[in-house]
C-alpha cells in the first residue's frame, strides 16, 4: 500500500571464548558462544510523510553459552566448564517520528522486552549457578523508551532528550551473582541541550543533564550524577567546498 514498507532481517553470530575462560578450564574443546536472531515489522507514513510509525517484533536465541560447572552441575560434563547454557530474548519495539514543521522534529520509541534463562543442555531443569530456569537475564529491563525533540531556528539549535527504563535485575556490584541478585529500580532522565552559532564555525553550547535532579543508578551500586550543567565553545575549521 502507499506509504507502507515491510522489513525484516535474520542473522547469526559468535563470541569466541575469552582469555579468562580459556585460562580457567580444563576443557580443550571449548567452543564459541552462538546466537540466532530475526526481526520483522511494518513501517507506515501518514499525513504526506509528516508522521512515520514503525512496529517491529524481534527474537534472539543464545546457545552454546559457556557455563562453569560444579556441585549439582558437575555430572553434566567431564570438564570444569562447557558450552551448555541457553537463553532467549524477544519482544517488540514501537517508534514514531513527527515533523510538523521544518524547524521541529520529534521522535519517540518504546521497547517491550521479555528475557528468560533456559535449562542447561542435558539437564532436566537446571540453570547456571546462582540463577534459576525462567529467571530474566540481568541488566535487561522489561520496559524502556526514549524521546527526542529537536528545534532549529536561525542561529539557535536545541533539543530536549528523555529516557526511561523500568526495573532491571543486576548482580551484586562487589562480588557478582555469587553474592546475590538485586532489582535495580527504574528511572526517568531528561536533559536540555542548546547551541547558539556566533559566527561561521564558532558555537557556544550548554547542556543541562538530569534536569529533574533524580537519584538513580544506571548501573546497580553506582549512583549517577544529580542535576549538573556543562557549557563550552566549539570551534570548527572546515575548508570551503
Describe this structure in words.
Helix content is 2%, strand content 60%. The radius of gyration is 24 Å and the shape is globular. It is mainly β and 241 residues long. It has a 10-stranded antiparallel sheet with strand order 1-2-3-4-5-6-7-10-11-12, with no helix packed on it.
**Count of DSSP-assigned helices:** 1
User: Residue ranges: pLDDT <50 for 5 or more in a row?
Assistant: none
**Count of individual beta strands:** 12
Strands side by side in the biggest sheet: 1-2-3-4-5-6-7-10-11-12
Average pLDDT number: 94
Distance between the termini: 41 Å
Q: Name the shape in a single word.
A: globular
Helix % is under 10%
Radius of gyration, whole Å: 24 Å
Topology:
Layout: E1 4-15, H1 19-23, E2 33-46, E3 51-68, E4 81-101, E5 104-118, E6 143-153, E7 156-165, E8 168-172, E9 176-184, E10 187-199, E11 202-209, E12 228-235
Antiparallel strand pairs: 1-2, 2-3, 3-4, 4-5, 5-6, 6-7, 7-10, 8-9, 10-11, 11-12
